[in-house]
Design brief:
The protein has 374 residues and is of the alpha+beta class. The protein is built from eight helices and 15 strands. The protein has three domains: 2-106, Helix Hairpins (Orthogonal Bundle), CATH 1.10.287; 125-262, Heat shock protein DnaJ, cysteine-rich domain (Chaperone, DNAj Protein, Chain A); 269-359, Sandwich (HSP40/DNAj peptide-binding domain). 21% of the residues lie in helices and 26% in strands.
Length: 374
Amino acid sequence: MADEKRDYYEVLGVPKTATDAELKKAFYKIAKDNHPDLHPGDKECERRMKEAGEAYEILSDKEKRAKYDQFGFAGVDPSYGAQSGGYGGGFGFSGFGGLDDLFNMFGFGGGGARSRNAPTPGEDISMGISLSFEEAAFGCDKSLTYNHIELCDECGGSGCAKGSSAETCPDCHGSGYVVSTQRGIFGMTQVQSECPRCHGKGKIVKDPCPKCRGQGRVRRQRTANIHIDGGIQNHGTIRLRGQGNAGFNGGPAGDLLVTVSIRPHEFFERDGNSVLCEIPITVTQAMLGAEIEVPTLDGSVKFTVPEGTQHGDTFRLRGKGIPYYHGSGRGDQFVTVSLTVPKSLNAEQRELVRKLDETLGGGAGKPRKFGKKK
């Protein structure tokens, strides 16, 4: 019964002076809070949704709203020629294009379809490339051959044979989609779907290009020249704009994404922008100190091992590391020494070591206690 209904303005929680934008905002909030996808099987949410839908369907229509404001529910009763039903009847959300708009706004899905005749970017292409340790450190230029999709040079991407052109689809009138009316839990709603005749393209090619068979795009092999800046990290990705697949309907081409894989080095390791290496030295070099040659990415350099160096000590060579990617300066190189102990001594050598041990007070300098830092 009409007198059992709540006032439509009360249902939406807006004043009678509410604008169209305020009505829409209020209804969207109620629809979002009570949508059946979020509350499956909840009859109360379904009732509130239908109630709000009926209120919005009336108030969003200027003519129906005027009748409601003047005569109340009697002005929009079906017996007076209005299209609104009761709580269980249908409502078409005519003020904003059907449930599809609502579903798309809140991410619930729906029956809508994006027209294929709109400009659409082409797909990105992902490739991999292998670099040596030095190439990644200092940068390099590479060539990469790959397959991609480009516009057909015969038809210029139209898909039509020379001297012909595509015709506007008579079913969708070039929009790429058709609208049908379906009955759902909220009553009769309009659903937008892809045009079955032109498959969403909006146009029909009756005389297709023989080279691309009406597709407007062909697969070709391409070679891209890539400059890789020094300092790139392992698994770093370089984006080459517009070197991917061709777009649709005048849309831009996609990108080429090249992911770098750095091969291990036989001597160096990398930690960020630091280069790590290990250098073996003799016991006497560690005890007395010595000048040794240390390999770096720039070639060998001389380094003085200080007297009394211990196994595992690490020294820094400033500015001998990896250049900073897209920046200035370089990291450092860290050299860790490892002592090499002779595996066999002759009688004379053993005697000399014993005498050295005696002069050092036994124990060759009394090693540190376990767990105690030097």
